[in-house]
Amino acid sequence: xxxxxxxxxxxxxxxxxxxxxxxxxxxxxxxxxxxxxxxxxxxxxxxxxxxxxxxxxxxxxxxxxxxxxxxxxxxxxxxxxxxxxxxxxxxxxxxxxxxxxxxxxxxxxxxxxxxxxxxxxxxxxxxxxxxxxxxxxxxxxxxxxxxxxxxxxxxxxxxxxxxxxxxxxxxxxxxxxxxxxxxxxxxxxxxxxxxxxxxxxxxxxxxxxxxxxxxxxxxxxxxxxxxxxxxxxxxxxxxxxxxxxxxxxxxxxxxxxxxxxxxxxxxxxxxxxxxxxxxxxxxxxxxxxxxxxxxxxxxxxxx
Length: 303
Prior knowledge:
The structure is a single chain. The chain is an alpha/beta fold. The protein contains 12 helices and 12 strands. It has helices spanning 4-18, 35-40, 52-64, 75-80, 83-92, 120-124, 138-149, 194-200, 219-229, 245-251, 275-281, 286-297; strands spanning 22-26, 45-47, 68-74, 97-102, 130-133, 155-159, 177-180, 186-190, 207-211, 213-215, 232-240, 258-264. The chain is globular and about 60 Å long.
């Protein structure tokens, strides 16, 4: 199966052909995938070199001229390194762009901590007006990329990952979907965490929701689910643990509830190993999730 990032250049290259507003700005990373598109549209495919602050600044400048810029590099260089430009060049100037990342939390462990960005979504949460998509399969990534580019002049972040569920699901860039219904709590699986969550909860009487668009957070879907399954909620995210707990708490602010946020821990893992080893070390494999989810949702007094 191809990866989400494998879909990125072909999809956006087609959008460059279809829509004269679309532009692409690269910081060296991913340039080979756009070689043909650059030959066809040299004025709308720009490689600024390894200058991530300029990447965002140039994108904002293109947006000010009326174009729809798509900016791409590794998550740590797209959100963290040029955060001031994301905050000011896009946010303060009130212009939109589509930020499309690669590498996510620890997709390339050999790259070391410089290439890891589990806090990217939490960092964008400090800013106003961002839509955040976290696809869990290449088919979903393609759909959400098209949604993002077509979203007027909005500020959109699309978080691509090499981690993937076995199959894609119908996503619309807005709603959280119910995958399984139960009465003993609600588990929200974000993006590529769905398969592990389904394995972990196979013997648990819980509702499983699937979220690929986490900002805006689908508060209505969570509220509906808790009406039948109870207000014990577990969020399982491929990014920093607790990233969406505040959003879930806001959704249930008028009812007693408990929320547990599971995700990537804050401690740096210096023996980088493999992606699967990182998942296990952060307690995001199916076995660890089964224990953590079950322990949290188990009724008081249960053995």
